[in-house]
Design goal:
97 residues, elongated, 35% helix, alpha+beta, 3 helices
Amino acid sequence: MDAATGTVIRAGVETVVNPLDLYAIETALRLKERYGGEITALSMGPPAAMRVLREAAAMGCDSCALLSDKRFGGADSRFAWRKGKRNNFHVGRHRIE
């Protein structure tokens, strides 16, 4: 973390899928198999987060979306989700850095 800005220092750090999110995707795939529906993987981060979304798509997610803008710098993605529309459910636990 950058002490001055409170943001994550991402330089030189590999972007990976949070292990708990891998479990969430697997659970979503099982639910889809049983009940139908669509799975959308959503990530809020820099363009490098597309790697994570490609992995989610390879696992079987139907669509993926990346929210990426410098204005999101330092934002807490869990808070941003809670402020949004609640027609979906969130099964991941937290982000990893």
